[in-house]
Amino acid sequence: MANLTINGKTFTLDVEPDTPLLWAIRENAGLTGTKYGCGIAQCGACTVHMDGVAIRSCGISVAEAEGKIITTIEGLASGSTLHKVQEAWIAKDVPQCGYCQSGMIMAVAALLSEKPKPTDADIDEAITNICRCGTFQQVREAIHTIASA
Amino acid sequence: MNKHVTPKMNRRTFVIGTAAVGTGLAIGLDIPFGGPAIVRAADGSPEVNAWVVIRPDDTVVIRIARSEMGQGSLTGLAQLVAEELECDWSKVTTEYPTPGQSVARKRVWGDFSTGGSRGIRSSQDYVRKGGATARVMLIQAAADEWKVPASECTAASSVITHTPSGRTTTYGKVAEAAAKLTPPADVKLKDPKDWKLIGKGLLRLDTADKTTGTMVYGIDIKLPGMLNAAIKDCPVFGGKVKSFDEAKVTGMKGVKKVVKVGDSAIAVVADTWWHAKTALEALPIVWDEGDNAKVSSETIAKWLAEGLDDAQPAYVGNKNGDVKAAIAGAAKKVEAVYNYPYQNHATMEPMNATALYTADKCEVWCGTQNGEAAFAAVLEASGLPAEKCDVHKVMPGGGFGRRGMTDYVRQAVAIAKQMPGTPIKLLWSREEDMAHGRYHPITQCKMTGAFDADNNLVALHYRLSGQSILFSLRPEALQNGMDPAAFQGVAQSGEAAFGYSVPNLLVEHSMRNPHVPPGFWRGVNVNHNAIYMECFMDELAHAAGQDPLEFRRKLMGKNPKHLAVLNAVAEKIGWTTPAPQGVYRGIAQVMGYGSYVAGAAEISVTDGSKIKVHRIVASTDPGYVVNPAQVERQIAGSFVYGLSALFYGGCTVKDGRIEQTNFDTYNSMRINEMPKVEAVMVPSGGFWGGVGEPTIGVAAPAVLNAYFAATGKRIRSVPLRDQNISFA
Hints:
The complex is a heterodimer. Chain A contains 6 helices and 5 strands; from the N terminus they run ββαββαβαααα. Chain A is α+β, with helices and mostly antiparallel strands. In chain A, helix 3 packs across helix 6. Chain B is globular. By secondary structure, chain B is α+β, with helices and mostly antiparallel strands.
C-alpha cells in the first residue's frame, strides 16, 4: 500500500513500493493522461511534477514519491481555467498525434515556472522530450508566445 | 434541381455495432408508421447522408472514414465536406463510423486505409460530393416547406435563405425533412476559385483534449472487468515457442493466466499491465529460433552486395537508350555504392489493442491506420462472421505506417479468445515494439554515371539491391514478380516519377528479401531512392565541375513541375548568394505520392563529425493545399522524422534479431537539434497530391549534400550514428 498525493487528492493505492510512479498513476489512480513511451526515462512522455519539478515518472518508484506533491496533466488547470501552457498549445495548434504532449506540456510548465522568459538556449536545455510527429517548431513558438504575453 | 429529389424507399430496420464504451455510433434505420425511413445517428439525429448528420441545435457531425493519427486529415476532410455543405464551421464536429457499420452498409464510407499520403487525395472527390449532396437536400427540404422552387434558395453558414422573400431557416430545422428525401443523382462541385474553407489554415478540430490528458488513445481504454496483457514474441523472426515454465509466475501478484499466442508468442494476463510485464520478464521461455538465428547485418549486407552485380537477375523499372553501351563509350565514368538500413517506426505509443470476445461477438478498440484491415484481422482471429465483429478506432499515438499492420490486433483477439467474456488490453513494451517492428526495408544501390567529352551526362545506371515490401505484405500487387513500388521516385511515370531526362537510363532492382519483416515506413521507398539519386546527382555535378543546382536544372527541362519546386527552394534559401561564413548548403528534389517536393539545408560542421543544421527550406506542389497550417506542420514533422532517420535510425541484426531495444539505442531528434523549417507551398492546381510523406524524401539528401559541401567527404551509409557523426 502507498499513499500518494496527486493533483491535491490523497490516493491510497494497493501497489508494491518499487512500482514505477507512472504505472501507479495510470493503472491504480486511473489517471491516464500521463503516457508510457519508453520506461527508461528517455522520452519524457511520462513527465509529471513532483514538488513542482518536472520528473519522468517511469523512472522513480512509488516509495520515492510518497510524501511528495505530484501534479499530472489532469491537475495542471485550475478548475475550469486552463494553464497558460495549455491555452497556448490550443491557440498555436501545437499537438499532432498528441501522445507526447502531456509530458511536453508538463515539462514546459515547469520550465516557465522557473524561467518565465526562457531563451532558445533555455528551451534547448530544458525540453528534451521526444516527439516523433515533430512538433518542435510549434512547441518553441508557443513557449515564446507565452513568455512575451 | 427539385425534380430528382423524391422520398426514400422503406428499408428493413437494422441496428449494428453497439459500442460498450466510447463514441462508436450506433446506427438504426428508423421507420415511422407508414412513413419513409430515416437513418439515425446514435443520439437520434437524422443522417442527411452517410457523411453528414445534423442535430436540431445545428451541430454538424461529419463522418470521417480515414484515420487521424496526427497528420491533420480529420480536419482537412471535414473542411472538404463543409466547403460543399456550406455549413457553419464553428458548429462542425466529427465522428468515426466503425468498419463493421461500413461493411453492413455496403462500404458506404469507402476505403478506411490511411497510408501512402492518401487520406485526403483519394477521398476528396466523394467526400466533397457527400457535402454537396447534403446541401442540395437541405435546401430542397426548406423549399418544400416554403412551397417555393429550390432554385430560389441559397445556403451559407448553415442558413438557408429564400432570396425573393428573404425568409430564412437553419440546417438543424430542416434536417429531419431533408433526411427523408432521395439524394440527387449528380451534384456539381465548386470551382476551386470559389473555395472558402479549402485553402484556409483552420485550427485542428481535435486539439483541446490533447492538452488536458483527456484524449483517449488505445493504451487508455478502460472496460469493466478488463485485464491487462504483456507479450513476448520470439525475438528471432520466424521462430517459435519451444516451452515455457508457467508455474514460475502463476503465484506472482496479480497474475491471472499465462497464454500461448499463436505458435511464436507468450502473454501474461494480470490485473495491471505492470504486474503482467513483471511476471512476463520472470517467465522462463525456451525458443526454437530456427535457421534465421544465423542471420546478421553482415550476412544481409553481403547478400545484398551480390545483387549489385550485373550478372545477377534484376527487374527493370525504368529504361531508355542503351546504358551499357553508353557507359562503355563514355569519356568519363563515376560510380558509387550507397546503403540504407532497417528502421523502426517507433511510434510514441507502443502497439496495443483491447479485445472482448464472447461466443457470439468480438469487439476491438485500438488505434489503427486501416480500420477495415483491423476488422478483417478480428474476423480471422476470432473465427466469427462480419456481423458479429467490430473495431472501434481511437486516436493512435503515431502511425507512420506501422499501424496499417494488424499483428497487434490479431494477438489481442487470440488472447481474449482464451478468456471469453473478459476484456483484455494487450500492450507491447517499448522493447517488444523495437523487437517486432515492420521495418523500413533494407537496400543497397550502385550507381554509375557517364559523361561525354563536354561533361554532358549521357548515361545513368541505377541498380538497387534489397528488400521488397510488397513481396512480404501485398504479393498480389507484384507484377510478374517485380515490385513496382521499389522504384518510387525513380519511376518512369506516375505518382513518383523520375524528374531528370538522361539519354541512356537503366533503373533496376535485384530483389533480395531477408527474414526481417519489412513495412511501409513514412516515405517508404522514396526515402532511400531519394538519398541514392539525389546524393549521386550531387556527385555527378561535382565530377562535371558544375553547380549542383545548375547541373540538375539542365536535366529537368522536360519536368517543369519538378523544376518549379526546386527553383522555389533555391530562391528561398538564396542559393545564388553566399551562405554565412562557415555555413554550407545542400539541395535535393523528388516526386512522391503525387506531389513534387524539394528541400535545401544550411549546415556547419565541426571537426568533421559534429553537424549543426541551421536552416531548412522545403517546398511542395501537392496540386491543392487544403489546410496550409497543417501542411506546414507535416512538412516540418517530416523533416524531424527524416533527419532522425538519417542521424539515428538504424536497426541492426544479430543472431536473427534486432539489436536496438529502446530510445537509448534507437534515438530520435530533440528540440535542440531541429531548426525551423521554412515551408514554401507552390500548389499549381489541377491534381491532388499527398502531403504527409513526400517531403521526408529530401530531408536526408539535402543535409548529406551540404555535408559534402562543408567537408569534401561523401557519406554513403545511413545512419550517421554508425559513421561517428552526430549533431553538434
